[in-house]
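Morning!

This is the sequence you dropped in the shared folder:
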Amino acid sequence: MDKTHPFPDDTPCGPPFGDPCPIPLDGGVSILIAAGLIYGGKKVNDLNKKG
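The structure's back. Tokens below.
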């Protein structure tokens, strides 16, 4: 592996360059997103019940 290029694929991404880059979502990020959605939904539900 070349030390000047730590990532083997350094091609640009996006519509002018072809396919968009995949966003890596590991298990931890997915759990955080799900927890945030559940928490936000609970807060909205509580506000609707209160008002």
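Headline: The chain has a mean pLDDT of 75.

More detail when I'm at my desk.
O.
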